[in-house]
Amino acid sequence: MKKQPVIKIRNLTKKYGDVVGIKDLDLDVYKGEIMGFLGPNGAGKTTTIRTCLSLLQKTSGDVKIFGLDSHEDSIEIRRRTGYLPGDFGMYSGLKVKTILDYLLSQSGVSDKSKMKGLAEMLELDLNRRYGNLSKGNKQKVGIVQAFMADQDLIIMDEPTSGLDPLMQQKCYDLFREERDKGKTIFMSSHILAEVEEVCDRVAIIRDARLQVVEDIDSLKEKMGKKLEIEFENSVDPSLFQMEGVEDFNMNGKRATMIVTSNLDEIIKKISQQNVLNMSLETFSLEQMFMTYYSSGGKGDEVR
To answer: What's the pTM?
Structure first.
């Protein structure tokens, strides 16, 4: 059965005068997944999110959310969407509880149990004034308000910014729990470990254009694995001139290479030699990210 996208973006372009924010962007985000939107500051992540929510006027293209037009049906879309902006902020003199109660009422929800449960999980004091909170605690308020109305779609721009590592892990658990309940999460981030740990798929944007959309495990498989071998004796480098071996380098008795396929045959060749040490390492998202952002990298070829 074909998946139906919760967010469907086609040929989306946003220009600020002569400056291009995003260009001809195509992207689907499906129900029940966590989609990571990855790129450095200025790549176009926030512009994409704000244009999808009709907080910015698109220059051209089409955005459908829940099958509704992002501009004409923006009120209905926002009713079903929790949103955490990257510049989240509230009135400093109000208590956290007052802020959250008000925002919850605007969503038409009277049950405060989820709000209170989220605050307890994130160790957020509802009775403190917003202006007296640390940056991390202010971010917790933003996360609580994004999830407390139990909406179908959650869109977040850099959601764990300012949180300590322990609290980040609690947020990742929350994201996965919500995903497992059938919610859809679309989150931008420049924290590579965050995307790798919590997201099902990743979209990488570079210079306002989408470079790749891929399941993270599948993307790692395409990128290959790094193989390092230390031989007891010198070996003939031509042994490894075969399909599936890239970037081969021999330094004395130590060989390194990138294996993209044919791993069984490569291991058979290695086993014919006396091996002292060997390691096989799957690329991390950080290594992949650097490849996609390097000039002439593989990421320029993958769509």
So the answer is: 0.81
Tell me if 189 sits within 8 A of 159, measured CB to CB: yes
Taking a C-beta distance cutoff of 8 angstroms, is the pair 183, 162 a contact?
no
Task: Report the phi/psi class of residue 208: left, alpha or beta, with left for phi > 0 and alpha for psi in -120 to 50.
Answer: left
Structural contact between residues 195 and 33, judged by C-beta atoms closer than 8 angstroms: no
Indicate the Cα dihedral angle 288, 294, 295, 296, nearest 10°: -20
pLDDT tens column, 147-168: 999 999 999 999 999 999 999 9
**Interatomic CA distance for residues 156 and 85, integer angstroms:** 6
How far apart are alpha carbons 189 and 196 in whole angstroms?
Answer: 11
214 in Cβ contact with 302 (< 8 Å): yes
Task: Tell me which residue has tokens 């769509």.
Answer: 303
In DSSP terms, 153 is beta-bridged to 81, 184
- Which position has the token pair 């290594």? 287
User: Cα separation of 169 and 171, whole Å?
Assistant: 5
Count H helices, E strands: the chain? 10, 14
The answer for residues whose C-beta is within 8 angstroms of residue 131's C-beta and 6 or more apart is 91, 92, 93
Q: Write out pLDDT tens, residues 84-134.
A: 999 999 999 999 999 999 999 998 899 999 999 999 999 999 999 999 999
